[in-house]
Amino acid sequence: MENSKVKILFVCLGNICRSPAAEAIFSQKAISAGVAGRLEIDSAGLNGYHDGEPADQRMIRHASQRGYKITSVSRKIIPSRDFVYFDMIVGMDNFNFKELKRLASPFGAQEKVFKMTDFASKCSANEVPDPYYGGAAGFENVLDILEDCSEGLLNNIEL
What we know:
This protein is α/β, with parallel strands linked by helices and about 160 residues long.
């Protein structure tokens, strides 16, 4: 991928908690590593229930306490565009992963689909759980997992 950016799309169900947090955390880690200019990072949801809305205020608050600024606006994944445009499409949980694999099939893009926890190095989680209906501990757990997996992802891509 000489002279081109590695394009990564993070995906969860509604694009208001996990995937915008993954986008913000991964972006910050890329900046800290000095490689942000070689990456294009975005997020999307499998459904469009929150299209045009900012991230969940609870996730924004918890992430900001760790120094991350979530600024993305929710959008639904557009298979005909996203599976062609992005190099990696990273789902947050097993359902997201399976659905992304299904959506990628007509575009021959199944090899572009990964699960966020594929890149875990310290945590033992096998998916990033949806914190939407839980309390503060759920958001903190998600951030812990995303921090670990973002470092692993950054170390696993060729820049």
